[in-house]
Design goal:
This protein has 13 helices and two strands; from the N terminus they run ββααααααααααααα. The longest helix is centred in the N-terminal third of the chain and has 46 residues, at about 50-95. The two termini are about 20 Å apart. It has a two-stranded antiparallel sheet. By secondary structure, the chain is mostly helical.
Length: about 325
């Protein structure tokens, strides 16, 4: 348990100067105790922190960091399997400005055979993206806290933005997912491999069409997610059982995901429009946004068409992700 003077480990107060990292948020106390207990065990046996203790601590940190990648990957897999059909309805609304019932009717006409068409790219992209999101956030946080003296809030926010920027390297998967979900391209390719092959003709740059809105979305949303996750959970009723912790994690993740999804919804609308195009001129974010704004009668409510479904999908999606992630983190 963290206190003002240090961290109490097994009844002994360990001063912060003997800890390699200082985590003040309740959400991070389990990692703090790991580091401090490792250091204190070595101090008890040798009287001071030696080179061997640093190596031992480093191996513990690496093992702990690896867990975050695995848990993020598994959480994303679970989420995609459950929410993919809802995502397809939302996609049609973002791309064509359809009402919910019209988008659902389109999917019904496509048939069950095409319901999970295009799931491979988001499965590959989301599992890898969330593995990087959680894993790199922990790695960047540890690195920045160790080598900088900046306030913890600033270093953790920077770590989240860096993790989000790194995720953008997987833009080609998001690009192919957009093409496979657009019924206008059903006759051009039938699977992920064919879609990548079609894009290859237009050069490597074509894979990264829509990169700018992805960068504008990933960094800030990551910073808000990791920055608010702990405080929101602390505001919820105290959990006294494993099931209560699971419910709190679901509520915390779902609420954050829904709010962030709503805030960045117009950015995703622009991203979808940009990525639905194959070949041709590369238009800027502002040009595509202005075109969509004109098409939707210059009304903000039309720009958010589909946002209500995205809100409910995000509650389910990010609730599953956060709850699964935290559950696996405790089990591994």
């Amino acid at each position: 348990m963290a206190t003002a003077a240090g961290v109490r480990v097994r009844g002994t107060l360990v001063p912060y100067q003997y800890c390699k990292y200082r985590y003040t948020l309740q959400y991070q106390e389990r990692r703090t105790e790991l580091y401090c207990s490792t250091e204190s065990r070595v101090m008890d046996s040798e009287g001071s922190a030696s080179v061997s203790s640093k190596e031992y601590l480093s191996s513990d940190i690496m093992a702990t960091s690896g867990k975050h990648y695995v848990c993020g990957y598994c959480a994303a897999f679970t989420n995609i399997a459950v929410t993919f059909p809802i995502q397809k309805v939302l996609f049609r609304q973002q791309l064509y400005g359809l009402k919910t019932k019209d988008a659902v009717h389109q999917l019904q006409k496509d048939g069950m055979r095409n319901l999970y068409r295009g799931i491979l790219p988001p499965l590959m992209q989301k599992t890898t993206t969330l593995a990087l999101m959680f894993g790199l956030y922990e790695d960047f946080s540890s690195l920045l806290l160790r080598h900088t003296s900046a306030p913890e809030l600033l270093t953790r926010s920077l770590a989240a933005v860096l993790a989000g920027t790194a995720e953008a390297a997987l833009t080609p998967f998001e690009r192919v997912q957009t093409l496979l979900q657009d019924y206008k391209h059903h006759d051009k390719f039938t699977n992920t491999y064919q879609a990548f092959k079609v894009l290859k003709v237009h050069g490597a740059r074509e894979y990264y069409r829509g990169l700018v809105p992805i960068l504008l979305r990933n960094g800030p949303s990551n910073a808000l997610f990791f920055g608010l996750r702990g405080p929101i959970k602390q505001c919820l009723p105290e959990a006294t059982s494993h099931s209560a912790h699971l419910v709190n994690d679901f509520i915390c993740g779902g609420l954050l995901g829904a709010v962030l999804g709503f805030l960045f919804f117009p950015v995703n609308v622009v991203k979808t429009r940009m990525q639905a195009q194959i070949g041709g001129e590369f238009q800027s974010f502002s040009e595509v946004f202005a075109k969509i704004w004109q098409e939707r009668d210059r009304k903000l409510i039309h720009l958010f068409r589909g946002a209500h479904l995205n809100y409910h999908r995000s509650i389910l999606s990010w609730g599953i992700i956060n709850a699964t992630y935290e559950l696996l983190l405790k089990l591994l």
